[in-house]
What we know:
The structure is a homodimer. In chain A, helix 4 (94-104) runs parallel beside helix 5. Chain A is an alpha/beta fold. In chain A, 44% of the residues lie in helices and 15% in strands. Chains A and B meet through helix 1, helix 7, helix 8, helix 11 and helix 15 of A and helix 1, helix 7, helix 8, helix 11 and helix 15 of B. Chains A, B: One of its GO terms (molecular function) is dioxygenase activity. Chains A, B: This is 2-nitropropane dioxygenase. Chains A, B: Keywords: Dioxygenase, Flavoprotein, FMN, Oxidoreductase. Chains A, B: InterPro entries: Aldolase_TIM, NMO.
Amino acid sequence: MATQRAAELRRLLARSYPWAKKSFIVGAPMRIMAGPNLAVAVSAAGGLGFMGPPAKPDGVLADLDRARELVSASDLRHPLLPIGVGFQVWNGDLKIATSAIEKHKPCAVWLFAPKNGQAELDEWTASLRGASRDTQVWIQVGTLGDALAAVNSSTPPDVLVVQGSEAGGHGMTKESTGTIVLFAEVADAVKESGIPVVAAGGIIDGRGVAAALSLGAAAVAMGTRFLASSEARIAKGYQDEVVRASDGAKTTLRTHLYNHLRGTFGWPEQFAPRTLINRSWIDHEAGVPFEKLQTLHDEAAKSGDAGWGPEGRLATYVGAGVGLVRSVQDAGEIVESVRNEARDILKALSDDA
Amino acid sequence: MATQRAAELRRLLARSYPWAKKSFIVGAPMRIMAGPNLAVAVSAAGGLGFMGPPAKPDGVLADLDRARELVSASDLRHPLLPIGVGFQVWNGDLKIATSAIEKHKPCAVWLFAPKNGQAELDEWTASLRGASRDTQVWIQVGTLGDALAAVNSSTPPDVLVVQGSEAGGHGMTKESTGTIVLFAEVADAVKESGIPVVAAGGIIDGRGVAAALSLGAAAVAMGTRFLASSEARIAKGYQDEVVRASDGAKTTLRTHLYNHLRGTFGWPEQFAPRTLINRSWIDHEAGVPFEKLQTLHDEAAKSGDAGWGPEGRLATYVGAGVGLVRSVQDAGEIVESVRNEARDILKALSDDA
């Protein structure tokens, strides 16, 4: 029964993204770093690429213009713009978002991190649906409570993304757990809704994709792995760290320190970003005052790529699975290789079972 | 390549436990609660059941005597005693363990939680191997560093168990992460050793089993699920909680409070148990002094099954996946059902890929 339901939800989701191949790979909307080049490359490889929020809310318009050009030059043909657009709700601009969606009609939006819970997500959902009826609304949650609030709201999403605690960037500060548990419990709790559930958090390679599909995921979102793609909008020093770092259980943690060092304040307290540990954190733990850390951080920011690394000081947001990322590849190559790995793993296990 | 290697390691492990069916399900050695009845029931169902440490080290002899009787009355036939025995190393008694293993020659021992790292595990491994040459040594780790120390030691284990942070009972206090990431990174790091790797932590049902196999696990260990088995050596009040509780991300945490309330001190600081939150923790957080908590705890202990529950005060060690445990079943039924679920899931995904 559960197996059949999972298959139905996979098919239901796939119908809205007819170019997407099995297994359905999603490029997560990492802020700034998932730009139009990455999003279109993921979709062109038979996945679904999301753009993340740009540095300023109105940057989404230029990114969408660029994405449209890239799609036109690709083999992708679809009535809607065949990529998704991610919005960080708490400090997003709903007016700009709505007009951007109205103009470009992407196939999906991905909403994350409201300040005022489901009510704010409902407001965004209604406004964006008003702007583009066929654009699907994906909502990312990190707790069972938020998942239930989303599917039971007056304005439920079309797709629910469940993010386990292994995820990089902003996730739940606490009250989360690993994808292997969280996904299954949420999927069970929302099954009556008939809403497809996508897994995110700690999925880096074909093993993770096959594991997430086994848990019942209708699609699998990857973020950290795409930071190490040719198309990521990322500094070389940062990307080198994504490839170099290992043992994310020990070398990453969730803290707002780097947000604050970059001058970003106001994140709702339930969210905090997972980052690689470097000198800023080590010195902070050793009691160096924030003002001093900020001075050192700002100097590091001027040093370019040398600002990252174990002795660097800049924010290096990655997932706990960073140790499984071992080289920079084209995004299309990543999508294809993880899809093939997952297929081979599932076939071998099925034959052997 | 990776798929082939995973298949080879599954076969290698299975050769030592010829009664075990695919997918290889292991009953984890929960202290006290995994007694001879549970261990033998898991093995009799085509898995491998481990007994956990009893309340006092010399209790292992009576448990092994009882296990031998149960095995004799079962269909299990094997030159070694076809169950495993778990030892908590830091406060274990190596002399008693060695004589027990020498007398009963179980097919496996599972070593966990040394006070002095790999050196202590080496000492135990050498002594137990001296007592029973064919008994396989399983070592449980929760970090990449401990995994590398184990496989690179002068006395490497026969089997490595990787426990993700979702696990119940004692695991890593920090520097761990979810099974979906930790397992894959450890498996890659130790691949040259040729040692089979078993996944533990957050695996409750056939979805989790299929996911763990997808990650490359040679076998899959489950603990919390077996707390809700007819054969578990567990108070009814405790077991009722395992069935009742949900949302383990929110309702469990790792703390030594309950160890201390029970009078257990001295755990190496890198380990702490995951427990359901109840009044003892809530009052502790509210600033109630330890002495008062202890008085209330000891009163609760006298109240029997009422000592557990959201308003109870007793230690209720469970994994973060406790919400996926929904009824008490016979252990053999659990083993068979998760095996069948996993097989169906893998077949459906393979057919659909």
